[in-house]
Amino acid sequence: MTVAFGASALDVLCPMHLVIGAAGRILHAGPTACKLGRDRRLEGQEFLDVFAVNRPRAIACFDDLRRLRDTRLHLEMRAPPHTALKAVLVPAGDAEERLIVNLSFGISIAEGVRDFALSNADFAATDLAIEMLYLMEAKTAAMEESRRLNHRLQGARIAAEQQAVTDTLTGLANRRALTGVLARLAAGRVPFALMQIDLDFFKAVNDTLGHAAGDHVLRQVARIMREETRDCDTVARVGGDEFTVVLPDVHSADTLRRTGARIIERVAEPIPFDGHQCRVSASIGTVWAREGHAGGMDLLMADADLALYASKRAGRARHTFFDPAMRAPGPDRRRRDRRDPQTA
């Protein structure tokens, strides 16, 4: 077999092969092997100047390498990106004692294709490397699609959880969220306060201007409460025109008084709607639990309600702190207050 014929055949059958002369110089490089050199021509270079032999070890010269014929080699290109390659070395079987080295990327084919801009035309038609590459690409695509699906499902789960604890009209926390917040605070020893807030004259807005006006008022009041409280506070809508504000880590009654005063002042400002001025006010009842609340959440809410209706009885648009003496009349008084339309 002549050199020209042998090289031509190998270029088709093993496009990543090298023909090495007896002295260790690269005489010929297959078309795909040529691409490994990038801008550097492989032919004419010493094999061991282009490739480092990682395994077997202790390869000091080409004669050491020649003795490893029919042995699987682990190579690494000396030039960046220092691509790892598998190889097998066999004698060409001619009088010139040339060697043929067939190269492969092995399991690093994806990196090799990327680093050297290869395509399926750079591999032999019978080479399973391309099929493996397709399988790897399919696996990558499937994993990416799975990741996107999991991301969407995670987003949907978070959205559903958020919706479950959010008042749909105002965007505030709802009663379920409030219960969780109070449970955590009541179990700790950090002082906190609870404000029950009820809108005065809200029924008149609904009766005269309709529920659209009422919804608009509720959204504006919700915005005011968010603006007049801290980021760490929880503002919840717990009923039609009933709101609750939970203020953790409160160490001063003046802080609560100022917060209540700001809310009352701003809620009292007319709220424009469709050419009309909606006028409501806010009555507030506050319980300050300085070292927790021994009676639990139900009693905490009940005490805040008592303070709230004390504000209602005192003329509305007021802020009243709970006093244990308010419990003296008993539950019948609170029920009478709730039935009394004058307190609405």
Overview of this structure, please?
This protein is of the alpha+beta class and 344 residues long. The chain folds into two domains: 3-127, Beta-Lactamase (2-Layer Sandwich), CATH 3.30.450; 175-343, Alpha-Beta Plaits. The protein has helices at 3-13, 31-36, 47-50, 62-66, 109-115, 129-164, 175-187, 202-209, 211-227, 253-267, 296-313, 331-339, and strands spanning 17-20, 26-29, 51-55, 72-77, 84-91, 99-104, 192-200, 234-237, 242-248, 271-273, 276-278, 281-289, 319-321. The chain has a six-stranded antiparallel beta sheet with strand order 2-1-6-5-4-3. It has a five-stranded mixed beta sheet with strand order 8-9-7-12-13, with helices on both faces. Strand 1 (17-20) and strand 2 (26-29) form a beta hairpin. Helix 8 (202-209) packs antiparallel against helix 9 (211-227). It is rod-shaped.
